Amino acid sequence: MSSKKIAAGEQFPAIEVVKAGGEPITLGVPQGGADWQMVVVYRGKHCPLCTRYLNELEKLKAEFFKLGIDIVAVSADSEAQLTAHMPELTASYPIAYGLSIAQMQQLGLYISHPRSEQETDHPFAEPGLYVINDNGQVQVLDMSNGPFARPELGILLSGLAFIRNPANNYPIRGTYS
To answer: Is the predicted pLDDT of residue 118 greater than 80, yes or no?
Structure first.
């Protein structure tokens, strides 16, 4: 089964998930005074590379926010899996759980089955990253079919600083069809 990949410049779909602590959050809707949002989809508690990536993101969170970009991370993990994962995470940005297969397909993510019950107990999304602009459009996106290929956060930060600078008049790229 294939899923439609989200294209650059498309409206980001309104997907509601639940944050740690039980509050709902709509992905792609900036919070805390930001006008853009970065949605980071991670594989789940079972992935040590995801834990490292989310903790690295925390170190740059303030720099992203200075650009007007808030952050939310989400996985297909259950509430119990996220609760068990939280002690390993330094993240102060919202982390949500319960991404359904239908929502993963709506986002155009690659979806994997666990290798064993020791890994996890459900299909999960491979990494995805979406930067949604103030018009609700996908400004920048990256999807991977494995945990080893993800945007380097420092380069992403400097690229978004360039894009957000009005003097650069930088359009959404990759829209030719």
So the answer is: no
Give the Cα separation of 49 and 57 in Å (integer): 12
Number of domains present in the structure of the chain: 1
Where in the sequence is the domain holding 70, given as residue range(s)?
32-164
Give dist(CA 59, CA 55) in Å, integer.
7
Q: What is the CATH number of the domain that holds 122?
A: 3.40.30.10
**Structure-model confidence comparison of residues 3 and 1, the more confident one:** 3
| Residue 173 three-state SS | coil
How many Cβ atoms from other residues are within 10 Å of residue 133's Cβ? 21
Assess if residue 83 is contained within a domain: yes
- Tell me the CA distances in angstroms from 42 to 95, 112, 125, 154, 167, one per residue in order: 10, 12, 7, 18, 33
Q: Report the pLDDT averaged over residues 123-150.
A: 94
Burial-class residue 29 by CB neighbours within 10 Å (0-12, 13-18, 19+). middle
Bridge partners (DSSP) of residue 95 are 73
Residues, the chain, total? 177
